[in-house]
Design brief:
By secondary structure, the chain is an alpha+beta fold. The chain contains 4 helices and 9 strands; from the N terminus they run βββαβββββααβα. The two termini are 26 Å apart.
């Protein structure tokens, strides 16, 4: 099941690992992604911490951790092909994986709640 953070990241639990990326809304707002700065594996992060940077033809934006834990893997394919973030933001365009250090935060949203949240921003 995928959950969404108010900072426009998504998190999907796969076994004991959380896969994280930016939402379709975020990549639409950014436009064509041209560069991504990923965290180092082993880095410990807390919910809401800026953990990566994504740059597009329009702007540079921080990517915030939707959960706390330790980064176990980064998607190195994004370094050579950052456009994956635009073409497959919830698939091959994932950013990093985290070994969670606790339960999912209560403020994460399901797909319907996130859609309503995005609608409220318009």
């Amino acid at each position: 099941m995928t959950k969404y953070h108010a900072e426009h990241t998504w998190v999907r639990i796969e076994g004991d690992t959380a896969v994280v990326g930016i939402t379709v809304h975020a990549q639409d707002a950014l436009g064509d992604v041209v560069f991504v700065d990923l965290p180092e594996p082993g880095r410990v992060v807390t919910v809401g911490e800026a953990i990566a940077v994504v740059e597009s033809v329009k702007a540079a934006s921080d990517v915030y951790a939707p959960i706390s834990g330790r980064v176990t893997e980064v998607n190195s394919a994004l370094v050579d092909e950052p456009a994956l973030i635009n073409s497959e933001p919830t698939g091959a365009g994932w950013f990093f994986k985290i070994a969670p250090d606790g339960a999912m935060p209560d403020d994460l949203m399901d797909a319907n709640a996130y859609a309503a949240f995005v609608e409220s921003l318009a």
